[in-house]
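Sample intake — DDE Tnp4 domain-containing protein
Collected from: Acanthoscelides obtectus
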Amino acid sequence: MYLCKASASSISRIVPEVCSALCEGLKDNIKVPANPEDWKKVANGYNTMWNFPMCIGSMDGKHVIIESPKYSGSEFFNYKGTLVLYCLP
Protein backbone atom coordinates (compact mmCIF):
# COMPACT_ATOMS: atom_id res chain seq x y z
CA MET A 1 0.00 0.00 0.00
CA TYR A 2 2.73 2.47 0.95
CA LEU A 3 5.06 1.44 -1.88
CA CYS A 4 2.39 1.87 -4.56
CA LYS A 5 0.77 4.95 -2.99
CA ALA A 6 -2.62 3.29 -3.43
CA SER A 7 -5.32 2.58 -0.88
CA ALA A 8 -5.75 -0.91 0.55
CA SER A 9 -9.23 -1.13 -0.97
CA SER A 10 -7.85 -0.28 -4.43
CA ILE A 11 -5.12 -2.88 -4.10
CA SER A 12 -7.63 -5.50 -2.93
CA ARG A 13 -9.52 -4.97 -6.19
CA ILE A 14 -6.45 -4.78 -8.43
CA VAL A 15 -4.47 -7.81 -7.17
CA PRO A 16 -7.09 -10.49 -8.01
CA GLU A 17 -7.60 -8.96 -11.45
CA VAL A 18 -3.86 -8.92 -12.15
CA CYS A 19 -3.47 -12.51 -10.88
CA SER A 20 -6.28 -13.68 -13.15
CA ALA A 21 -4.72 -11.89 -16.13
CA LEU A 22 -1.31 -13.42 -15.38
CA CYS A 23 -2.78 -16.91 -15.09
CA GLU A 24 -4.68 -16.49 -18.35
CA GLY A 25 -1.73 -15.01 -20.23
CA LEU A 26 0.79 -17.53 -18.89
CA LYS A 27 -1.42 -20.62 -18.77
CA ASP A 28 0.84 -22.48 -21.20
CA ASN A 29 3.93 -21.68 -19.08
CA ILE A 30 2.60 -22.21 -15.54
CA LYS A 31 2.40 -25.69 -14.06
CA VAL A 32 -0.29 -25.96 -11.40
CA PRO A 33 -0.41 -28.98 -9.06
CA ALA A 34 -3.30 -31.30 -9.85
CA ASN A 35 -4.29 -32.42 -6.34
CA PRO A 36 -3.96 -31.43 -2.66
CA GLU A 37 -1.01 -33.78 -2.09
CA ASP A 38 0.98 -32.08 -4.85
CA TRP A 39 0.20 -28.64 -3.35
CA LYS A 40 1.51 -29.89 0.01
CA LYS A 41 4.74 -31.10 -1.65
CA VAL A 42 5.26 -27.67 -3.19
CA ALA A 43 4.64 -25.92 0.15
CA ASN A 44 6.98 -28.33 1.92
CA GLY A 45 9.69 -27.61 -0.64
CA TYR A 46 9.47 -23.85 -0.06
CA ASN A 47 9.52 -24.38 3.70
CA THR A 48 12.49 -26.76 3.57
CA MET A 49 14.62 -24.79 1.13
CA TRP A 50 13.72 -21.17 1.91
CA ASN A 51 12.00 -21.27 5.32
CA PHE A 52 8.75 -19.94 3.79
CA PRO A 53 5.99 -21.99 5.43
CA MET A 54 2.69 -22.37 3.55
CA CYS A 55 4.14 -20.81 0.37
CA ILE A 56 2.84 -22.44 -2.81
CA GLY A 57 4.57 -20.39 -5.50
CA SER A 58 6.60 -17.36 -6.48
CA MET A 59 7.33 -15.13 -9.46
CA ASP A 60 10.41 -13.22 -10.44
CA GLY A 61 10.13 -9.45 -10.55
CA LYS A 62 11.92 -6.54 -12.17
CA HIS A 63 13.59 -3.48 -10.70
CA VAL A 64 12.73 -0.31 -12.58
CA ILE A 65 14.93 2.69 -11.80
CA ILE A 66 12.78 5.76 -11.09
CA GLU A 67 12.96 9.23 -9.63
CA SER A 68 11.47 8.97 -6.14
CA PRO A 69 8.70 11.28 -4.93
CA LYS A 70 9.80 14.23 -2.81
CA TYR A 71 10.04 13.53 0.92
CA SER A 72 9.76 9.75 0.46
CA GLY A 73 12.91 9.14 2.49
CA SER A 74 14.40 5.69 2.05
CA GLU A 75 11.12 4.09 1.00
CA PHE A 76 12.21 3.63 -2.63
CA PHE A 77 15.83 2.46 -2.12
CA ASN A 78 16.72 -1.14 -2.86
CA TYR A 79 19.70 -3.24 -1.83
CA LYS A 80 21.58 -2.14 -4.96
CA GLY A 81 21.45 1.48 -3.80
CA THR A 82 19.16 2.72 -6.56
CA LEU A 83 15.65 4.07 -6.50
CA VAL A 84 13.14 1.51 -7.68
CA LEU A 85 9.51 0.82 -8.32
CA TYR A 86 8.84 -2.89 -8.06
CA CYS A 87 6.92 -4.30 -11.01
CA LEU A 88 6.06 -7.73 -12.27
CA PRO A 89 7.80 -8.73 -15.49
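Post-analysis note: Residues 25-58 form one domain.
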